[in-house]
Each structure stands twice: as C-alpha cells, then as structure tokens.
Amino acid sequence: xxxxxxxxxxxxxxxxxxxxxxxxxxxxxxxxxxxxxxxxxxxxxxxxxxxxxxxxxxxxxxxxxxxxxxxxxxxxxxxxxxxxxxxxxxxxxxxxxxxxxxxxxxxxxxxxxxxxxxxxxxxxxxxxxxxxxxxxxxxxxxxxxxxxxxxxxxxxxxxxxxxxxxxxxxxxxxxxxxxxxxxxxxxxxxxx
Length: 192
Fold this sequence. Notes:
By secondary structure, the protein is mostly helical. It has a single domain, classed as Four Helix Bundle (Hemerythrin (Met), subunit A). It is built from seven helices and no strands. It has helices spanning 3-21, 27-53, 59-82, 88-110, 119-144, 154-182, 184-190. Helix 2 (27-53) runs antiparallel to helix 5 (119-144). The radius of gyration is 17 Å and the shape is globular.
C-alpha cells in the first residue's frame, strides 16, 4: 500500500470520527469536528499531490479516493440534515449523483477502465469541502454562544455556508452530467 492510499484510508477514519460529534451541542465537539474535517480535507489534497509527485498512482488509490471523499461529504451532509441545519432534499440530490457516478466508475473498473475525476469534479469537491467547513465553523460558534470571539460572524457564516451549499449543489449536478457526457463510450462498453 502506498502512502497516498494510506492517507485516503485515513480520510475515511476521520469521517467516522466526525459524525458522532455533530449530534452534540457542546462547543468542543463542534471544534473537534471542524479540526478533523480540515485535516481530512488536507489528506484529500495531500494524497493526490504525493501520488503524482512520487509517481505512486495506483488503481486502488484512483478508485478509493473518490469513495473516501463521498463518505466524508455525504456523512457530514447527512448529519447536518439530521440535525435540521440543511434541507434533506439537497442531501438526497447530491447523494443520488454521487451513487450513480460511483456505480458507473465501478462498472467501468470491472472492464479495466479507470475514470479519473475531471476539473469540474475537483471544483465540485473543493466547493463542498469549503462549504461544509463553513457549516462546521458556524456550528462551533453557534454552540459556543456569545462567549465566542467569533459570535459577531455568526450571521455572515450562515449566509456564506448556505450560499456555498447551493453553489456546490449546482456544481455537483453539472459535473455529473459532464461525467456521463465525457465517458459515454466507455460506459456503454462497460454495461455490455
């Protein structure tokens, strides 16, 4: 196993650690979730950078990386919806796109084709990570109350987090359509 693949697996572990923290009303739980989420985002960037730099790209890493991202993003989105912070329908749309694209990648992989992420998919992932990080920051400040030195930023953080959520939803849907348009021939072959 390469170090890049280890970082991908670590991101999955980070996701599992974040989720229970988001059902707490304690500020320290939200702060730990925010820090862990930031570390998970760093591993996302670092594993790709190191894999390219050290020429350690592998089929396993190429397949696991987007799955780890989906576990992290969908897990946090799901918990935010469960806690009634974001609308559940957004989570369903994003989850549906992610499941369909992942299933298509797995079908292509069975035929020996690896469908790597494109530029718009990377923008989508970056926007999701930044938006979710902003929601976690908002949750931490909200849980801390007026004791927080960032309490004055609460309304701006809420507006920014929601704006980023809707932009990431649009990018998610656009990148899904683009994925199928770009890989139509490979996917047709994989489904035969």
